[in-house]
Write a structure and sequence with these properties.
With about 325 residues, the protein is an alpha/beta fold. Helices cover about 45% and strands about 20% of the residues. The strands form two sheets. It has a six-stranded parallel β-sheet, sandwiched between helices. The protein has a six-stranded mixed β-sheet with strand order 7-6-8-9-10-12, sandwiched between helices. Strand 9, helix 9 and strand 10 form a beta-alpha-beta unit. Helix 2 runs parallel beside helix 10. It is elongated. The structure holds alpha-D-tagatopyranose.
Length: about 325
């Protein structure tokens, strides 16, 4: 064999061995991850998404809105769709109706939609008004609201006036929590009155001032339900600022470091930890399975809770669900 022919052969072999790698890279699934806002809950969810992406060899493009709301989330979604390279999008829609149109556009662009934490329509993707998403993976928030109500009722001895601080109407997660909480108080605790619900638009400072105003207006307030990270943090802070820690009981949805510290201080009596890591991890698994042709994925997956109180907070089986976010 001439030197020249040998060189051509070697070069061809080297190129050929490089080819499969190039092809494999082209076939890599690309998944967009668009949570609701920067907060510890979604940061833990991101850890789940990234862990699954690594385990399954897919690429993830993450965009996290700086503030909560349709007007912030929609342009980010549109830009992600416009990239043209996404196969799936994992999203926590910030409104159950207003995000339907933008996500239908994503679906029409060939992107599979998986909703996590919050759902579209009524969350029934089989028989409900919205059926195009592949699945909803998240908490049963109505049940979570019921658990919060029973916890607060017990903490205040089954009687008194209570108040709810929440984020926005029309967000499936917090809306469900308020529904479940109200249902239990009305049906099971005739001696408990809900004095009102305020919406802080997911802003902690607003939650602080709203709760402070209610503490002024209702001097015998017995308890507060903070329906998410910033609501509970704001409600707890207002109670502490008013010097009422331990007198006005707080129940917190979401297991942040703040909630756990205040549980230890006796300001917060119950903390509901959701399972955001599971939501993120499973959503990536679902995308991979869908891409592989799996047709029997459940259209709704409930990820459950860890219910944390002062008696079990140090149990490692419970404490593992406290939201641990990278520094
Ligand atoms: O409570 C979570 C999430 O479930 C909700 O939809 C929005 O608020 C959080 O992200 C906590 O801040």
């Amino acid at each position: 064999m001439s030197k020249r022919l040998a060189l051509v052969l070697v070069t061809t072999l080297v190129l050929a061995s490089a080819l499969p790698a190039v092809t494999a890279q082209d076939d890599t699934l690309v998944i967009g991850f668009l949570p609701g806002v920067v907060d510890p809950f979604y940061q833990v969810m991101q850890l789940g998404v990234e862990a699954a992406a690594e385990d399954m060899g897919v690429e993830v493009v993450t965009q996290i809105p700086p503030t909560w709301g349709v007007e912030v989330q929609t342009p980010i979604l549109d830009a992600m769709v416009a990239r043209g390279d996404l196969d799936y999008i994992i999203i926590a829609p910030t409104d159950k109706d207003q995000m339907v149109g933008p996500l239908e556009a994503a679906r029409d662009a060939g992107i599979g939609v998986i909703t996590v934490d919050t759902f579209l329509g009524d969350g029934d993707y089989v028989n409900g008004p919205v059926t195009f998403p592949i699945s909803y993976i998240g908490s049963d928030n109505v049940e979570g609201g019921r658990i919060a109500a029973r916890g607060l009722a017990e903490a205040i001895g089954g009687e008194g006036r209570v108040y709810i601080n929440s984020t926005n109407p029309n967000v499936s997660s917090v809306e469900g929590r308020v529904i479940g909480f109200t249902e239990v108080m009305e049906n099971e605790y005739p001696d408990i009155e809900i004095v009102g619900v305020d919406f802080n638009l997911d802003d902690m400072n607003t939650a602080v001032s709203q709760t402070a105003a209610v503490l002024e207006r209702v001097p015998d307030l017995a308890g507060v339900f903070g329906t998410n990270v910033f609501s509970a943090q704001g409600a707890g802070t207002a109670v502490i600022n008013a010097g009422l820690g331990g007198e006005v009981q707080v129940v917190a949805y979401d297991a942040t470091q703040f909630a756990i510290e205040q549980l230890r201080e006796g300001v917060i009596s119950l903390v509901l930890a959701q399972k955001p890591f599971d939501m993120g991890y499973m959503a990536v698994q679902f995308a991979v399975a869908d891409a592989a042709g799996v047709t029997s994925l459940p259209r709704r997956v409930q990820t459950g809770f860890a219910i944390i109180n002062i008696d079990n907070v140090d149990d490692p089986e419970v404490a593992r669900f406290i939201y641990q976010v990278p520094e």
